[in-house]
Amino acid sequence: MLFSAWVREDCSDPLGVTCPDSTYTHNQIQLQFRGSNNSNITFIPSGPIIDSWQRYEGYFIVPQGDTSVVLDFINTGNYNIYFDDIRIQPFNADMKSYVYDPVSLRLVSELDANNYATFYEYDEEGTLIRTKAETVQGIKTITETRSAKQKTIINLQ
């Protein structure tokens, strides 16, 4: 199975604690299998921090005979931690997820097979104006479109 998620540590507290540049260290996710083996698997985030979020990714095998699992989100720091885009899927499966605005029902983002997002931005009239993609190097603008209706031309003779 493949486990994937994103985490953000809210390190900017009044005590002056700041987030590290390389990796978050005050969180982990643990899978506890309940069954004949009672085994645990612990995941920690790795890779670059992208727009204040760091990715979890890991493979695991469900122990034979286990019938349930408990997913624990562990905060070992003194500030808020946020988890998002949590996925558990077969390692050879392909998955996409979609996020819609609850008011306009427009597509806001799409998560690809690697759990990286593509963001869609709209103008006030609901026209798509910008598409951004989340990459290992950060969030990059993919397309940007601006159009305007031509104003009435006055005949100047």
What does this protein structure show overall?
With 157 residues, this protein is mostly beta strands. It has 2 domains: 93 residues, no CATH class; 55 residues, no CATH class. It is 0% helix and 50% strand. It contains no helices and 12 strands. The strands form 3 sheets. A 5-stranded antiparallel sheet has the order 8-9-10-11-12, with no helix packed on it. Strands 4-5-1-7 form a 4-stranded antiparallel sheet, with no helix packed on it. Strand 4 and strand 5 form a beta hairpin. The chain starts with a strand and ends in a 13-residue tail after the last strand.
Give the strand line-up of the largest sheet.
Answer: 8-9-10-11-12
Number of structurally distinct domains: 2
Q: What general form does the structure show?
A: elongated
| Content of β-strand | over 45%
- Using only CA atoms, what is the Rg? 21 Å
Query: Uncertain runs with pLDDT below 50, 5 residues or more?
Result: none
How do the helices and strands follow one another from N- to C-terminus? EEEEEEEEEEEE
Largest sheet: 5 strands, antiparallel
Helix count equals: 0
What structural class do helix, strand and pairing data support? mainly beta
Number of strands: 12
Question: Roughly how many Å apart are the termini?
Answer: 74 Å
The portion of residues assigned to helices is under 10%
Mean pLDDT: 86
